[in-house]
Amino acid sequence: MIQHFEDKKSKVPPYADEASGLWGRFTGELGRRLREYCHGPHQDRLRIAWNSPTGRTHYYGGCLLPRVAHGLGLMISYEFRCMHTGERYDWVLGEHGNNRELMPQILIESENDVENVCNEEIPHLCRGVGPVKVLMVCCPWNQRDEEKRLDEWRAVINKNCTPGLQRGVLGLIVAHWFPENSEEGILKFDSYSLDIDRPNTGWTAKRTLFEWDYARPHT
C-alpha cells in the first residue's frame, strides 16, 4: 500500500525544507522545458527520442537537463565523480565553490531497466552528497505497478539511508507511454518525492509534470 503524507512545516527539519524547495523548483522547470518542446516544429522530438533507450538518454542529457539547469541558474556536469565518496553520477546540477569545484545540489541517475534500480541506482543515490537526489525511470505505470514499485523502492531507501547522515529529498520521475507499444498514445511524466531523513513517512502524492496526447491533433 502506498503511503502519502502532507507537508507540515512546523515538523520538517530546516534541511529537509530547503531540499523540498529545490526539488519543487527542479520539477517545475522540468515540466516547463518539456512543454516547450512539444509545440510547432518540436512536437515530434520526444516521440523520436522514445524510439530507443539510448535516444531517451541522449535527449535528457543533450537537450532537456541542460535547459533545466540553465533555468535554475545551475551548472551541469556529465558523468560527475563526487570528491567525497568517489561515486559517479549520470548528471549533476550544482554551483561552483570557492575552489572552483562543482558543489552538487541535484544528483541525477537515469535508468530504462527498472528491475535494476533496487540493486544499483537507488543505493547509489542514497550514498550521494547533496540535498536532492533524482531517479528518472521509464517503465509501465498503471495503479498496480505504482503501488508495487513505490513500496519496494521505499523499503530499499529505508535500508540504504542512515537518518541524520544521508539527508534531503530523493525524487522520482516516472516517464511512461500509454497504451504501451502503440504509435499514437499519451506520454506522461509523473513525480514523487521522499524525505530521506524520514523515509517511513512515505512518498508524497503523485504530481503530473507533463502530459501529451499524440493521438490528438495539436496546433
Which features does this protein show?
alpha/beta, disordered N terminus, single chain, 219 residues
Strands, helices and their partners?
Elements lengths: L13 H23 L8 H5 L3 H20 L2 E7 L6 E9 L5 E10 L9 H6 L5 E7 L4 H18 L8 E10 L7 E10 L11 E7 L6
Parallel strand pairs: 3-4, 4-5
Antiparallel strand pairs: 1-2, 2-3, 5-6, 6-7
Helix pairs in contact: 1-3
Alpha carbon gap, first and last residue: 41 Å
Mean pLDDT: 82
Shape: globular
| Computed CA radius of gyration, to the nearest angstrom | 17 Å
- Roughly how much helix do the residues carry, as a percent range? 25-40%
Beta-sheet strand percentage? 25-35%
Whole-number count of domains: 1
Q: In terms of quaternary structure, what is this?
A: single chain
Number of strands: 7
Lateral strand order in the biggest sheet: 1-2-3-4-5-6-7
Q: How many helical elements?
A: 5
- Protein structure class: alpha/beta
